[in-house]
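Everyone, study these two lines:
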Amino acid sequence: MSAGGEGVLARAHVATRLPARDLDRARRFYSEQLGLEPVDERPGGLLYRCGGVDFAVFLSTGASSGEFTQMAWEVDDIEEAVAELKRRGVVFEDVELPGPPGAPAAGRTEDGIVDIDGNYPSKGARGERGAWFRDSEGNMLGIGQPVV
């Protein structure tokens, strides 16, 4: 078996779906705060493309809890990305990463960014820097930069 698997899903394109209670409000947020415009749309849905990967924002009566990262972008320069998004009005979350049981926190955001120990071996990085924010619909979104 290959590292990514052999099944039909291992060869499939992955696309995230994010719920929105107000699609017009979500469209404004993604345009004004994130600088993104839909590449396509249909009744009740907006399709975005970043780096060749799709994600959709769809009209929903339900909502995610927003307590976990639902989608993230990997960037080359997290400080530049955070600064640009702050200029656009994005508010970053204050995050404290839990440590092992009984140990102090593993990290805390400073100026919206936290240093995270460890990374996936296939990425060839020793750690990651991360930042999180919520979209207009409460979805938790993240930005990460591998630390080599």
User: Anything to note?
Assistant: The first helix runs from residue 23 to 33. The CA atoms of residues 22 and 59 lie 7 Å apart. The radius of gyration is 17 Å. The beta strands are 16-20, 40-42, 45-50, 53-59, 71-74, 96-97, 107-108, 114-117, 127-134, 140-147.
